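Can anyone check this?
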Amino acid sequence: MVNPVQEHYQKYPYPQYPLLASVRRCDTYALNLHALWGRFNGTMPPPEAERILIAGSGTFAPYPWAVANPDVPITALDLSERSLRRARWHCFLHGKWNVTFRCGDLSSQGGIDGEFGLIDSYGVLHHLEDPVAGLKSLERRLVPGGILRIMLYSRYARREEESIRRALKIIGIDSPQTARCLFSKAATGSRLANYLTTADEAASTSGLADALLHPRVHTYRIDELLEIISQTGLEPLLFVHRDAREDPADEIMRIRMLEKERTAPGNFVLYLGRDIKRQAGKSSGMIMLNPCLKSAVSRLSLGSLHLPPRLGIANPSLDYQERSFLRRFLMPVRCSDVPDGSADQIARYKRQLILINFSPGCPPSRPD
């Protein structure tokens, strides 16, 4: 039986970034395993957690993950051989050798051995026939204390795309070229004309196909998403879409209020975890700089360091004085040795994953 999703991505590998497109390591700081493990567990990851799985890798994700974690084994899993081939070329051209590529279905994960400390499944579960089974399959691959990032479509964030997608399906349009031709004939100011000129995905053939011609799409309200999660042993750790509140319960209430007005904060992006130790809020132990930022912070340039928004936070630029402060943490520093009066500044940097607070030598233990 042909898998329609596999067939779709064989025809339209996604996304279509140029193979020579590169990222600075400092731009990948929110993908660093040690920073994320420290954020949620308050420790450095134990040896068995030093593995990353990208479940539904597409053509590009393995590259920035490898940049962020050059010494961590990464497995990139995808249904599409064409997508994996392009992802492999992207890593090869940028000298990233720590990624193993596997073609397969994340629900079965044939050929994927062992467990992982960090799994990324961004924009994948909503394309599965059974998203609950897919999420349970990923959960089984997590070590205790393991972290899973997911992105799923919000019902109200996807209203425009879904209405257009259904209309195209009804009238039998099944190629991006035909869809683009139809849009070009749309009246100025119409929904179709506006979509073509304002949607980022419409700029490329693969993006248009992914947004409007995908054969299987689920969208969710927040309580539908929580129902899926409740069928696993996972728990929400942090929502990281635009303007998300740090406390998951507060963010859930905020989203419910938005949905009463038939709006949404964009698609849902969140971290889930299993057997999380929740020591990240402590003010003891050690503090160190996110390793992805060491080179950028240690430079003596007078200009500001511009970091992209991560974890739902629009980060201000790091000026010379801030980078000078952060250079104190190029090597781990005991919390008791932190200068007086800097607690608020350090707390902000920890929330942004710029600094990591951890207790050495106390990895999470496996349950009996």
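Reply from J.R.: I decoded it. The longest helix spans residues 81-93.
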